Amino acid sequence: MNRLLSKLVNPSVRCLKCFMFTVIAGVILGFCAPLQAYTLQNLTQYVNPFCGTAGGGNAAFLYPGAVAPFGMVQWSPDTSQNPSGYQYSDTQVHGFSLTHGSGGGCNYGSDFSFMPILGTVNSSPYSSSNYSHLNTSYFANITGGSQHANPGYYSMQFNGITTELTATTRTGFGRFTYPSGNTASMLINLGGDTNGTINASIQINPGGNEISGWTQMSGMCGTAPGIMYFDVVFDHSFSSYGVWNGSTYYANGQTTTGASSGAAFSFNLSGGGVVLAHTALSSVSVANARANLAAESPGSSFNNNGFNAEVTAANNAWNAYLNEIQVSGGSAADTQTFYTMMYRTLLAPNVVSDVNGQYMGFDGSVHTLSGRTQYGWYSGWDIYRNECQFLAMIDPVRASDMAQSLVQDAADCGAMPRWADTFGDGGLMLGDCSTPIIGDMYAFGARSFDTASALADMKRAALTPNVQARNGTYERPNESSFLSLGYVPSGPTQGGYAPVCMTLEYCIDDYALAQFANAIGSTGDYLPSMQRAQNWRNLYNSSTGYIQMRDSNGAWSSGFPTYNGSAFADGDVYQYVWAVPFNLSSLFNSMGGASTALSRLNNFFTQINDSDTSNGQYAFMGNEPCAATPWIYTSLGQPYKASSTVRQIMTQLFNASSNGYPGNDDFGAESSWYVWAALGMYPAIPGSDVLVLHGPLFPQATLNLQHGTITITGSGASDSAPYVQSLSVNGQSSNASWIHFANFVNGGTLSYSMGASANTGWGTSSLPPSDTDGMTVTGIAGTHLIVNHANGLAIDNGSTTTQGAGVIQWGPNGGSAQKWTFTQNSDTSWNIVNQFSGQSLDVPGGSTTNGTQIIQWGANGGDNQRWWVDIQPSGSYKIWNKANSLALDDDNMTGNGSPLIQWTWNGGNNQLWNLQ
Fold first, then answer.
1. What is the DSSP letter of 42?
2. Minimum mean pLDDT among 236-240, 417-421, 425-429, 819-823: which range?
3. Which of 119, 168, 699, 880 has the fewest Cβ atoms nearer than 10 Å?
4. What does UniProt give as the signal peptide span (predicted)?
């Protein structure tokens, strides 16, 4: 037994980091959990794989079966047609399949379903009466106490049969114990996909005790379908066998192809006993599935001891990952919830490449990698908010492969995916999600990937309209409108929907792009990206105080659309108004100041899980748009309210039971939220390394990271003590409510004193950053001539003091009629006042009509007299109105006396202005 083997088998041994294939008790495992020089504790004992498996309106949709960290194989029971294929309250099981989704909101998987039965099969088990296409006579009743699960292991007893399952990354190992006195048999059903099997094929090799085949799977939520291959080898020969295709059964048949097909076989097993099964998956071929099986579950381990060793190895791999964060001092219930949530966080993204480096690319071609792993199953819109940061923090090497996988997807198919499964991008949800995912991972330590190509991919989608994957999916639907108008208008095309949400997501994407570009040294991309990020202002309706939809002419849509209508998706106007995480101070100013924003936030958190899909006015923490909203209290100068709100959400909405989630887990998004919350910090600004602090749940938490140890202590911390009394950072007293992760990547200490009563002054001396870069220029306060870049004419008031007089253009002469004084407002907009008349540059009546002439009017502070001034790459300025987002335009005229008009931004020289 070598040193690495002894460290993994003995959980008390202090361990070193490893990223290689690991051999344990003769079993080659397709994963190697990150290990650090610390003493491993038995933490898998706290994980409840049945957590989140209950049904209901806000179900988490999780499965309890055997899986390795980020594993390709999820060997788990099939009980019902829902997104995970399983529900804890179900009373019957009809198989144990190899594919399951981890908490998504749409059906997926339940392919390659194994069902142990008693007795021989003489007719087709097919039935059209249920989604599994299996006759209910083969279903088995689930009795209380018959199911057991630990990380990497699952078992169930029924009809005298005990089914036990474990898994490596790409393989499954099953042990089926049959009673005496009956014929031991098995069904493999290829027609049970919860979305409907498109096609399938199965092949029996009786001489090798082997069955193989493929299934053309339906995609999740409309994602791309694809073919997955499997191979399984049993340790017993077949006494009889056959295949079925629909209602036709072929006794002694060895192959068939059809959407409702499968194999039935009995074992040469007299007097009952154990049947072992080694199985594997591949997206490339049956041959690759066999290679995965040979590498990760070789024949030398094909015995009871081998099964037990693989269960132990899977447990040790999970335990090594869980030991990346060691918490202590909390209640038993909190400890169980914490490690269960951490376990769920480490299920996805999933490995999709085989042991030989091959994977099926999004272009439908086989690609081969060397020295790294390809990943799929990125629930992009969900996981960029807090999961990707966590994965990069605890395992930057694996996260680097995850980031590179998105870059590879773009190379394969022409665009980075918004929502990637094994076979392609289904274009689910909103935003260019790969951009903040990569930005998150880089910010939290994942650096070993092709950053130059990643930036090029990001920029191509951000700056080039109509970037499409080969399957026709747009990376940024309606990007042309976002670039030309500064927002996505009502009635979006290109398969887009919910234009308000789309606009806000693109703003977050461009913020993440700006941070990433700046971090890797491409500083010239920073400001233009930040300018696009500030486009959220174009949809802020100061008349209502909400971010709302408008048409391509700038007119606000009639009515007040709220939830999942034409304007929003998976949220409503009350929830999305807060979706400017990188520039909250400007949002507060738009609302009328911090006090108004605070009053609205207080009302918003009157309820914490309002899932009213018609007119919910409160927080819905069961869905991702509200994930960062509790920490807005901190940006408003009240960190103590963030602390109490986060703790309320944790204690009331999360636990380790089957009903332990407030909503869909969405491949770890909700789980990772809880883990961050329990640690007392949260990555509230996607694309940055900012962590907002609110105080820990546990008295002690040790983060055993790759480059150092972060120690978090919370004296007095408990469920009932959510408030920070004081904080020391690396031994120095701190009244700041946030930190940069970069300052802790090599280790550090956060020492809190916690209490049951609020210290309202803590954390108020330094609030989280609010980035106004790109929002408007600085350094232009004072008096200037405003000269058009195209025609060289200056903006002129016509030497009149008449209120309402039209503003014109004239050759520069330096007179007071051409001199305009810029004064900045608290929202960073500018009032522009003429020196001759003392009146303000004004949009008459706040008109939203292209071609309207600009006038002068006495200063009144209205939005129609407030102007955003953004510097452009040429060094000239874009000047555009806050009320309607239309830009000053020379009307393509060159003569003295030409009117100054407003027009939709197009970036032409006629809309660029120089200040002299």
1. -
2. 425-429
3. 119
4. none
Q: How far is CA 522 from the centre of its chain?
A: 26
Shared-domain flag, residues 747 and 821: no
User: How far apart (Å, rounded) are the C-alpha atoms in residues 860 and 386?
Assistant: 43
Q: Using the 8-state DSSP alphabet, how is residue 2 labeled?
A: -
Q: Are residues 786 and 730 in the same domain?
A: no
Q: Of 258, 283, 314, which marks where a domain is finished?
A: 314
* CA contacts within 13 A on the Cβ side of 519: 23
> Residue 543 has what pLDDT?
86
**pLDDT band of 772, cuts 50, 70, 90:** confident
DSSP states of 233-295: EESS-EEEEEEEETTEEEET--EEESTTEEEEEEE--TTSEEEEEEEEEESS-HHHHHHHHHH
**387-394 and 434-443 helices, crossing angle to 10°:** 40
The amino acid sitting at 734 is S
Q: Which helix (H) or strand (E) holds 92?
A: strand 92-93
Are 187 and 97 within one domain?
A: yes
298 with 361, same domain: the answer is no
Packing angle, helices 499-519 and 434-443, rounded to 10? 40
- For residue 331, how many other CB atoms are within 10 A of its CB? 12
Domain count, the chain: 3
Mean pLDDT of the chain: 91
Query: Rounded to the nearest 5 degrees, what angle is found at the Cα of 437, between the Cα atoms of 435 and 438?
Result: 70
Mean pLDDT, range 884-900, rounded to an integer: 93
Structure tokens at 693: 């602090």
The pLDDT confidence band at residue 15, using thresholds 50, 70 and 90, is: very low
Instruction: Tell me the mean pLDDT in the region 52-77.
Output: 93
Residues 510 and 371 in one domain: yes
Tokens of 804: 């309402």
User: What residues make up the domain containing 134?
Assistant: 45-314
**261 vs 211: CA distance, rounded Å:** 13
Residue 608 lies in a domain: yes
Question: Predicted confidence band at 17 (pLDDT cuts at 50, 70, 90)?
Answer: very low
The enclosing H or E element of 416 equals: none
Q: How many helices (H) and strands (E) does the chain have?
A: 18, 49
DSSP strand pairing (66-67 vs 74-77): antiparallel
Residue 570, pLDDT > 90, answer no
For residues 136 and 472, give the distance between their C-alpha atoms in angstroms, rounded to a whole number.
41
Looking at the domain assignment, is residue 329 inside a domain?
no
| pTM (predicted TM-score) | 0.89
Same domain, 196 and 282: yes
Beta-sheet pairing, 748-755 with 709-715:
parallel
Classify residue 56 by burial, with Cβ atoms within 10 Å: 0-12, 13-18, 19+: exposed
Which CATH number belongs to the domain containing residue 820 in this structure?
A: 2.80.10.50
The terminus-to-terminus CA distance of the chain in angstroms comes to: 78
Residue 247's CATH number: 2.70.98.10
CA distance 280 to 434: 29
Do 102 and 147 lie in one domain? The reply is yes
Residues 829 and 748 in one domain: no
pLDDT of residue 104: 86
Is the model's pLDDT at 601 over the cut of 50?
yes
Residue range 396-409: mean pLDDT, rounded: 98
The answer to whether 264 touches 242, Cβ cutoff 8 Å, is: yes
pLDDT (tens digit, 9 = 90+) per residue, 496-532?
788 999 999 999 999 999 999 999 999 889 988 998 9
- Residue 439 counted as domain residue: yes
Min mean pLDDT across 14-23, 264-273, 816-825, 874-883 is at: 14-23
pLDDT tens by residue, 441-473: 999 999 999 999 999 999 999 999 988 887 788
Contact 85, 109 (CB under 8 A): yes
134 pairs with which residues across the strands? 126
Last residue of a domain, one of 283, 314, 345: 314
